[in-house]
Structure formats: structure tokens, C-alpha cells
Specification:
Helices cover 39% and strands 10% of the residues. By secondary structure, the protein is of the alpha/beta class. The protein has a single domain, classed as SGNH hydrolase (Rossmann fold). The strands form 2 sheets. Strands 3-2-4-5-6 form a 5-stranded parallel beta sheet, sandwiched between helices. The protein has a 3-stranded antiparallel beta sheet with strand order 1-8-7. Helix 3 crosses helix 10.
């Protein structure tokens, strides 16, 4: 059983100001006009599409759960607002052909008319992967961003962590970008997101630095003490384990709630231990 120190996230207070009736200086006050109906807030999660690589596809999570387990399972269990995963195209094979396979999954996701596109690791292999020069990797990253351009729904992507711990293992040395190339690549991702008000970026660079240092991991008001509760990566030092995927899910949902200017607790489970247990119960019933 996982342990966690998790505090309730603060709720965003909303205030509605009533419309006052107009007064005439020559007659009795007119009856107040009926207040206009307030349109319900759009449910970001009504129609969810997921695209991406192996972390979104749940690489090797079946070693812990006994059956295939995906990020979509976490999202389904975490959300307590009406939602439906209408498309899940994430695949652990994206590294084989990020441009071709990425174009196909993006096109299929677009046809599903989602209200939100969850693509936390979609851009990863557009920058990683075989490439003769840093300039070629940057050009491929531009291709990945261009594939996301048609989406006008809410969209969450991730920045590019420097996964040097996996170099020579899960990431062949020929597929590992130079360490000094990440700053410009991530600056481009954030600049692209800033130009698109519908886009949120999950900061995997900061998350990865925390995991590698062994420091306490903090999201919102909860803290994960790695010394006490264990690490969040698999032995390959690249993919999140069962608990790490819960953190990945909450990071993604937290990024989207920041985009909506609301609180995670308004739409989602917030305790990673409870989320892992819920997913384990879900997949064990298959």
C-alpha cells in the first residue's frame, strides 16, 4: 500500500454579481428585469482524446497490475466530472516513426472532436530519436507542433526532460540529444504554447530533476517523500511506475485546471494512493 501526505487543494471561490434594475428620476422604480440565464461552464473533460508515446500507453505497468494498464485508465478513475475517453491512440511504438505515426494519431484524434486533447509525451520522440544534427531534431519538433496546430480544444503537452539516466539503455545513444540542446527546444515549446491560449504545458523538466535528485516531490498542496514512499520511475529510469503514472495523471489534470483557473479537487481525485488503488481495482476486474 502506498502512503502519501496529501492536503486538500484550495477551492477557487466564484462570485456572481446580481444585475441591478434601472431607476428613473421621474417615476417609481421599475421592476427589476429577470437576470439572464447563466450558461453552464463548459466541461473540458466531456470528450477526451489521448495521443502520445510509451508513458501514455502504460509501458510495462502490467508487470505491477497483471494486465495492460494505460494512462486512460487513470484519467477515467481520477475524474469525478462527466467524461468519456473518445480516442486513445497512445503507443509505445511511436519512436519508430514519430512523424508518420504521430500524423495518423493526431488526425484520428481530431476526427473524434474532443473537448480536450491529452498529449503529455507526444513531442518526446520528435526531439529524441535518431537524428544527425540538433538542427534536424529541432525541425522534427516543429513537425510535431504543426500536427497539434489544428486543435482548438483544450490541449496539454509536456516539455522535454533530459533523461540521461536512460541513455545507453532504453534510449540508444544515437537517439539521445545533446544536453545543451534542451534549453532552446523547451523554450520553443513554451513559446508555442504561449501563442495558443488553449494550451497548457506540464513541466516534466522540473519533475524529472526532482526525481533524479531524490528530493520531495510537490504538486499543489501534496508532497511525496521519495525516501519514505519510494521512487516513481521504473528500473529503466525512463518510464513511470504505477505510482509514477498516478503522479503523471495528476500533473496533467492539474495543468488543465490551471488553464481553466479552477482547482484540481473540483474535477478530480487528488490522492495518488487512492488513485493507484482505484486503477488496480479497475484493471483487476477485466
Amino acid at each position: 500500500m502506498l502512503m502519501t501526505r496529501f492536503k486538500t487543494l484550495p477551492l477557487l471561490a466564484l462570485a456572481l454579481l446580481p444585475m441591478a434594475g434601472c431607476l428613473s428620476s421621474h417615476s417609481a422604480p421599475a421592476p427589476a428585469a429577470p437576470a439572464p440565464a447563466v450558461a453552464p461552464a463548459v466541461n473540458t473533460f466531456e470528450r477526451i482524446a489521448i495521443i502520445g508515446a510509451s508513458s501514455s500507453a502504460g509501458f510495462n505497468l502490467q508487470l505491477e497490475t497483471g494486465v495492460p494498464t494505460r494512462l486512460a485508465d487513470y484519467i477515467n478513475e481520477a475524474l469525478h466530472v462527466p467524461h468519456e475517453v473518445v480516442f486513445d491512440g497512445a503507443t509505445e511504438l511511436l519512436f519508430l516513426d514519430p512523424e508518420g505515426m504521430g500524423a495518423k494519431m493526431a488526425s484520428d484524434a481530431l476526427e473524434a472532436t474532443p473537448t480536450v486533447l491529452i498529449a503529455p509525451d507526444f513531442l518526446f520522440w520528435f526531439f529524441y530519436g535518431a537524428g544527425p544534427t540538433t538542427e534536424a531534431r529541432r525541425a522534427r519538433l516543429e513537425t510535431g507542433l504543426a500536427l497539434l496546430e489544428p486543435f482548438t480544444c483544450k490541449l496539454v503537452i509536456g516539455d522535454l526532460p533530459y533523461m540521461q539516466g536512460a541513455a545507453g539503455g532504453m534510449i540508444p545513444l544515437s537517439s539521445m540529444p545533446r544536453g545543451d540542446s534542451f534549453e532552446a527546444a523547451n523554450a520553443r515549446i513554451y513559446a508555442w504554447a504561449a501563442a495558443h491560449p488553449n494550451v497548457a504545458v506540464t513541466p516534466f523538466v522540473a519533475v524529472n530533476k526532482t526525481l533524479q535528485s531524490g528530493a520531495r516531490y510537490v504538486l499543489g498542496d501534496f508532497t511525496w517523500d521519495q525516501d519514505e514512499l519510494g521512487g516513481l520511475l521504473q528500473a529503466d529510469q525512463l518510464h513511470p511506475n504505477l505510482a509514477g503514472t498516478a503522479i503523471l495523471c495528476l500533473e496533467v489534470l492539474y495543468s488543465l485546471t490551471q488553464l481553466d483557473k479552477t482547482a484540481l479537487i473540483d474535477v478530480s481525485m487528488v490522492d495518488p494512493e487512492e488513485l493507484v488503488d482505484a486503477v488496480d481495482d479497475l484493471v483487476s476486474s477485466r
